[in-house]
Design a protein that fits this description.
Elements (H helix, E strand, L loop, with lengths): L4 E5 L8 H13 L3 E4 L9 H10 L3 E5 L5 H12 L4 E6 L13 E5 L7 H16 L4 H23 L5 H20 L3 E4 L4 H6 L9 E6 L7 H4 L3 H4 L6 E6 L8 H17 L6 E6 L20 E4 L3 E8 L7 E8 L1 H15 L3 E2 L6 H12 L17 H5 L1 H8 L3 H23 L3 E6 L5 H20 L5 E8 L2 H11 L7 E5 L12 E7 L2 H5 L5 H13 L1 E12 L5 H17 L4 H10 L1 H4 L4 H9 L3 E8 L6 E8 L2
Parallel strand pairs: 1-2, 1-3, 3-4, 4-5, 7-8, 8-9, 14-15, 14-17, 15-16, 17-18
Antiparallel strand pairs: 6-12, 7-10, 9-13, 10-11, 11-12, 18-20, 19-20
Length: about 650
């Protein structure tokens, strides 16, 4: 920031001022203040305008007031209107200042030839106090912006020599701005998010305490992180540390997008003027279930600004006469709320990964997986899924993507194939179709099928006809899974699908027939490790008992090659994929050891033979992903 600007004016009539002038200027020079001395300047014709311009540019006025000259009243009055600090220096024994001067600060100095030590000490202490208040960088910055606003509004008035509608429009805008300041008080800022970048840039002038922030890249409020390269320096110049929140799915299929973020973070750290700017990366879900944003339910995203010791910022939803859900930037001075915000910030930082300049996508992913123990298979976990620890369920959607190659593609193919089978059966029978999902888990497959069912049924709804799909039942033995699936499926429960805590096959009524029975990553569980031919025939027997005439089975799962050599090679390729995508060798080995029902899964030819015994034939087969272990199989009933 520019040095303190000082306006000096001395009376020509007071004698013995040379020594006090030297003392004042020496004190100001020692503090690197920049002085405008009226006595040393050429005087233009329009002195009044010159005085006003110089006072507007000044941070403090130091005036000699011994003679109470008329100019003094104008200078003091104009400065007070701009809230510029005024210091009046008077020679001892001279006339008192009039009361209507508003009691500006003033100190006496001795006459010619006297000892100036006391005056110098008092003057120095006065400047010290002012530097903590009216001459602080924050006060000066705000006053200068007010001065710029005043000048620009004055230029508007100058450009209109008669009444004009633009004057009223400007007046309304200023009134709205004043209302924002007035409605929320001097300790808060409430304004449009578009102003945040400009507001934040001014913090470069403040160096009293640490600045910490959370930038939520999953929310579209701060779009400048994505498309404004000029913001990088403005938004990081004084930051001590910042946490960037991303969608965890970027680690599993979002390499291009996350790599763009990494390039931005690298540029920020490289161009930062200070070495103590740390960047952390976390996902939007890493705050933990107990962490709460200090703005509560009104908070927009997880954005947060922390300015120690008592200032926080973020975004809130507002419906103050404008559009519902309007987003506004809130910055508040509140020590209690600051402490709440700090706890929220630290809860996320505890689970965040520190970003380093040499990080690329895979290095960052590997550290994130290890930090949060994603993909860790607890060797104590048994086949009783519902008895596994909370760590299994809370991070299941992330665990599964660390374990299963092309998991999202597997779900997409399965959902599309189920949809295809529904259409095939409906077209053949012209009667509503009933479907049963085995092992819905966290609801990924369920949530992928429901939108398609809505689209299919919409025309029938408009015509008042029966829906093509009249019943969607989904079962899972783990109640913890139901809690997760409910969040994902949401309002569709009851209206479209029923999620039931049941076990296949004992809890599934064989008196109710379904046209399509399907599931993802569940067949191997039902068959068990290294299944016998009897177990395979038993599986298809249970399916056939519940399958309607002409129905089909759709399963996306793990299927081993038909030879021992082929299976070993496929499992080795699977392990190589897990390690190559960030999982540690320890975690990969623990997963394979803990899931023998997948490693020793039945081959497709053995499944075909077992299905044939129940009048089912393989209608479709598709490999999913780069390894040979994962496939989509469709079995249809012969009619």
């Amino acid at each position: 920031m520019e040095p303190v600007q000082v306006f000096l004016a001395w009376s020509m009539e007071t004698k013995g001022t040379d020594e006090v002038i030297r003392a004042v200027k020496a004190a100001l020079e020692a503090r690197s203040y920049k002085c405008y001395d009226w006595k040393e300047q050429p005087h233009p014709r329009n002195i009044g305008i010159e005085v006003q311009e110089q006072i507007r540019r000044s941070d403090i006025l130091i005036l000699e007031g011994s003679t109470v000259r008329p100019n003094l009243a104008f200078e003091v009055g104009f400065a007070r209107a701009l809230d510029v600090p005024v210091v009046v220096i008077k020679q001892e024994g001279t006339k008192e200042l009039p009361e209507d001067f508003g009691a500006p600060r003033y100190i006496n100095y001795p006459g010619e030839g006297a000892d100036f030590a006391r005056f110098e000490d008092e003057f120095g202490r006065l400047l010290d106090r002012l530097e903590q208040g009216g001459l602080s960088r924050g006060h000066r910055a705000l006053r200068r912006r007010l001065g710029v606003l005043h000048e620009r509004m004055q230029s508007v008035l100058t450009q209109h020599d008669a009444d004009h509608p633009l004057l009223y429009l400007r007046s309304g805008w200023l009134d709205a701005l004043a209302s924002e300041v007035g409605n929320f008080g001097p300790l808060n800022i409430v304004t449009d998010p578009d102003y945040y970048s400009r507001c934040f840039a001014e913090l470069r002038q403040w160096d009293e305490g640490p600045i910490k922030a959370i930038a939520d890249l999953t929310d579209n409020t701060e779009t400048f992180w994505l498309n404004d390269l000029e913001h990088l320096e403005r938004m990081s110049a004084r930051v001590t540390e910042r946490i960037f929140l991303i969608d965890w799915k970027l680690f599993f299929g979002g390499e291009a997008e996350l790599s763009r973020h990494i390039a931005m973070w690298r540029q920020q750290k490289s161009s930062h003027t200070s070495s103590d700017y740390d960047i952390y990366v976390a996902t939007i879900d890493d705050a933990g279930p107990t962490a709460r944003h200090p703005f509560g339910e009104l908070a927009v995203g997880a954005h947060l600004l922390l300015l120690a010791p008592d200032c926080i910022g973020g975004y809130k939803q507002h419906s103050d006469g404008g559009p519902t859900g309007r987003r506004m930037l809130h910055i508040e001075r509140d020590r209690h709320r600051f402490n709440l915000a700090l706890r929220y910030y630290n809860a996320i930082k505890q689970r965040a990964v520190r970003f380093e300049l040499d990080h690329d996508f895979f290095m960052l992913k590997r550290e994130w997986l290890q930090k949060l123990e994603i993909g860790r298979w607890d060797r104590r976990w048994t086949r009783a899924t519902e008895q596994r620890s909370p760590a299994y369920f809370e991070r299941y959607d992330q665990h599964i993507r660390a374990w299963i190659p092309a998991y999202d593609q597997l779900i997409q193919y399965c959902a599309a194939t189920v949809a295809s089978e529904i259409l095939r059966i409906y077209q053949a029978s012209d009667t509503p179709v009933s479907i049963l999902e085995i092992g819905y888990g966290t609801g990924s497959l369920t949530a992928s099928i429901i939108p398609w069912i809505h689209t299919l049924c919409e025309p029938f709804d408009q015509l008042g006809q029966d829906y093509p799909v009249d019943r969607y039942r989904a079962i899972d033995r783990a109640s913890q899974m139901r809690e997760l699936a409910v969040r994902k499926v949401g309002d569709e429960l009851g209206r479209v699908v029923r999620l039931l805590n049941k076990t296949a096959w004992e809890d599934v009524d064989d008196g109710v027939k379904h046209n399509v029975i399907f599931g993802s990553l569940v067949m191997h569980f039902l068959l068990g490790p290294d299944p016998t031919d009897e177990a395979l025939r038993g599986f298809f027997h249970e399916c056939a008992r519940r399958l309607a005439v002409g129905g089909s089975l759709v399963f996306a799962d793990c299927f081993a090659p038909d030879t021992d050599e082929g299976r070993e090679a496929a499992v080795a390729a699977w392990r190589s994929w897990m390690v190559g995508n960030g999982l540690s060798e320890e975690y990969a080995d623990a997963y394979l050891e803990g899931n023998p029902d997948m490693v020793t899964a039945a081959s497709v030819p053995r499944l075909e033979a077992a299905a044939e015994a129940h009048n089912l034939y393989k209608a479709r087969e598709k490999q999913v992903g780069s390894t040979q272990m994962f496939r989509l199989l469709v079995f249809q009933q012969r009619v």
